[in-house]
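Example record for the data management plan.
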Amino acid sequence: MPINLNYNFNLGILLVVSVVVLIITGLFSILYIVPSVNDIFISLFSDFYFIFSLRTAHNIFANFLFLLLYLHIFKSWFISGIYQVEVFSSGIILFVLFCAVAFLGYCLPLGQMSYWACIVILNLVTILPFGNTILLYIMGGFSISSRTLMFLFVLHYLLPLVSVIIIAAHFYLLHINLSSSSLGYFSSFGNTSFFLNYVLVDMYFVALYFVIIFILLFWYPYSLFEHVNWIKAMPLVTPIHIFPDWFFYFAYACLRSVESKVIGLILLIFSMFTLFLPFFIPIKSNLLNYWFVVSFLILSFLGSCVAFSVYLYAVLLLSFLWFSSFTLIVFLVINYHDTLLL
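Corresponding structural encoding:
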């Protein structure tokens, strides 16, 4: 490992621990969940405390997984570059997989908010050729049914197992040429052994992580649940404000900022992949990276607000500034690469 490691590098082990615990709690939850429209909501609210603790722990670790994931991405903006294309390519795949798994898990309880969030996102496939037919096969009918839940349940079960393979590849690609340096380059000089000192530091942060989780689990178990999802889904009553989990706010803000479903979907996809564009820019600028972080936070806040016109205009303006910043950088790098390096 590089001798100039810092505490930001402990995010990786915390992410691995989160994934492992999520898989374990998910496998145990399979024993109790009933993927049926009439029974799934009740099965997740059993009086048996062990079942409810499983769901609560699963929810808490899922929220912390995305918090750590975004911190991991932001950290990489400042210390990494295009020399790790393979690592970041596997990271992009992992991010997309985690987003898909999170969406599927959000839909499964079939609460009032998750039901309508599922309706909104699934209907985006209608922009594809034969989209209505595809939607019909996915949903198994003209509305959310037990067939839909079974489809979502199977994907929510299988995709995390696929992610384990990609996580292993991510680690292999990262460490095949030694880990990345916090100075932003590979170096065969100034390396130090990871064992035993850094292992102890990792274990310290893992223990601290579990202390925080246990405090939330036993003292504040409802703090990370969406309150509207405590209401069973009502297909005839649309919520005043439909919104996803907090870690999708920035993408959701772009999706709903325009009336066109096609343009909204393009903005949603582009907003997610702009998280990885700084990795491929050979010119590193901390000021620029801070601008990207602030833009991400503002977009997330706007995505949580009710869709009034003032918020929608703010999202369009900020999205334009955010996307145009990347476009300008790419243009400068392509045309003035040698001059900028000097």
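Summary line stored alongside the record: Residues 8 and 75 are 7 Å apart (CA to CA).
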